[in-house]
Amino acid sequence: MTHTLLTKPLLCRCSKSAIICFLLLTVFLSSARAKDSANDIFSLLNLDYPGLEQVKALHKAGEEDKAAQALLDYYHHRKGIVNPAIDLNNLSISKREQKWADEALEHTFYVHDGYQPSFNYGKDINWQYWPVQDNELRWQLHRHKWFTPMGKAYRISKDEKYAKEWASQYLDWIKKNPLVTVNQEEYEIASAGEVKGTAENVRFAWRPLETSHRLQDQIHQFTLFVSSPSFTPEFLTQFLINYHRHADHILHNYSKAGNHLLFEAQRMLYAGTFFPEFKEAAAWRKSGIDLLNREIKKQVYEDGGQFELDPHYHLACIEIFDKALQMADANGFRQEFPQSFIDTVERMIVFYMNISYPDYLNPCFSDSKKDNKQHVLAHYRNWTKMYPENEQIRNFATEGKEGKLPANLSQGYLKSGFFTFRNGWKQDATVMVVKAGPKGEWHCQPDNGTFELWFNGKNLFPDSGSYVYAGDDEVMKLRNWFRQTAVHNTLTLDNKNLETTESVTKLWKPEGNVQILVTENPGYKGLKHRRSIFFVDRQYFVIVDEAIGTATGNINLHYQLCDGKVDITPENLSLTSDFEGNSQVKLQCFANKGTVLKEEEGWFSTAYRQRTKRVALSFNTDKKDKETVRFITVIYPAKDKKDFPDIKARIKNADQEQKSMEIEVTINGSKQLLNYQL
């Protein structure tokens, strides 16, 4: 029964005494509900926990309202539990966060960077509003990203409107998003419309990843709002019951694998640490710690690469482990993480460092997004606190003012399949990052052999990225375009996606004037792709691509450049850039007679639902029998177009047993032999 069910005409027909009786009944029922809530929460708490003695006595005496007030007083004065993410003595709010907080007062909720300006969810909030059938828009609504900024705005301004509105929205969400049982696999269905009714809302509102996001952030909101007059004893009981519901739901519905499982485990650790008063708190914390200790061994290869083979999620996983260690340090249980855990996180940081560019940003392979330098710098500053003896991390954290640069330049991670050719660490460096590893998890794309190339401050061959994740047919069509093999810097058969993504490193030679990578992927039935990359004089690249096997069809070698003007010369299979600035490139392909250069549709995406048009092309030739098809591509970066050389290249010797290769490359009339022996 609610007030909204009693209309004005009905009131007019009632006697005054009847109305008074009704209002008294409403007050009584509200009080009864509050007492029921209080009883519920006290059954979930360990009332023998130090500091809850008065709460226990009042509850035992049946004074539930007073017990709830005593519980709130306890939290007002509680000591010894640290939330390392919120420093109330040094609190700040960015302009962006302030905007989110202010807009939220009118129910315009910041949900996703890819959907700006933000949508308004109505005076009577419609938590099921789905203006674009993109699953991320619906999922991330339930992460309540604007709640913590509202807390910051309240704490800094002391304006009660933020606390009052937050409490109202919090209770409204509970009311309109009940948790009912659905099959666990329904939480991860990618396309829209497959689940209907209540289950459809639950799979968005209560997916374990979103539930864990709230579990973590409600700790911050509690810290920021608990002193507010709007944070009443009655609200506290509702908050704690809802919080317990969240933790219990995750405990019984953990994701099966991947970064989702890591996020959920880290946040369960948070829950069990920050609210030790719950009876199950120790089990929550142990569950999180045990999973993190188990999964770091499964998800991180011995070379430091995370098994989703996505630089963005690699960084996210470092952050997950780092947050867990910060919470452990702040609350005195670091010993529950073995030294091997801490050493693995350090290897992950060094891995990330070595596949990043001089601007601190990572390649946009797979579902990666382009970060910003200040955000990544903040990570390094946190990491140097965790690893004060690591001179490389300190160097990056201080932008070279302290510490030491890595002793290496080029670096290979053979298990993860990431290889970096590098001639320096400064802005004017040449850096090629190659992705050629094992089969990755969901975020990984079928792009084995692809690369990005940075030169003198510019990414000349950016990866296509991902653009969007999952949703209805229109959204999936966009996602699948950016995922396809043919929009990466690699080789395809008949422009089809790779059937197998299991690259094997045949040779890695990262030292000397000619550095070499040879990698193979059995991409299609009856066809393997061998890619050999020579980094010559730490200046330019020679790439030999071989399509080996009995399969027949059209062999396509794809290259995707950055945005800007490019002059293409089909008759000699070459292109030269005319970009703004001092980062240019010449690319020329040498292949079988009859090879045709085709311009293709080209886009790259470095942020969700943002894309940039660019030049893309392919070199195409027919494979009619078991004979190997070979391409030589010379990629010559230069600061000025006038420095582009005359280039010639040919296969001088190719062993039929595929054990050796010799190439002759001529640059401005000067010949050089490049070779390898496996």
From TrEMBL:
Keywords: Lyase, Periplasm, Signal
Gene Ontology MF terms in the entry: lyase activity
Domain Heparin-sulfate lyase N-terminal: 41-394
Main location: periplasm
Signal sequence region: 1-32
Occurrences of domain Heparinase II/III-like C-terminal (ranges): 413-622
Localization, UniProt: Periplasm
Any one GO cellular component localisation term in the record: periplasmic space
Protein name as it appears in the record: Heparinase
Protein species of origin: Bacteroides oleiciplenus
Lineage summary: Bacteria, Pseudomonadati, Bacteroidota, Bacteroidia, Bacteroidales
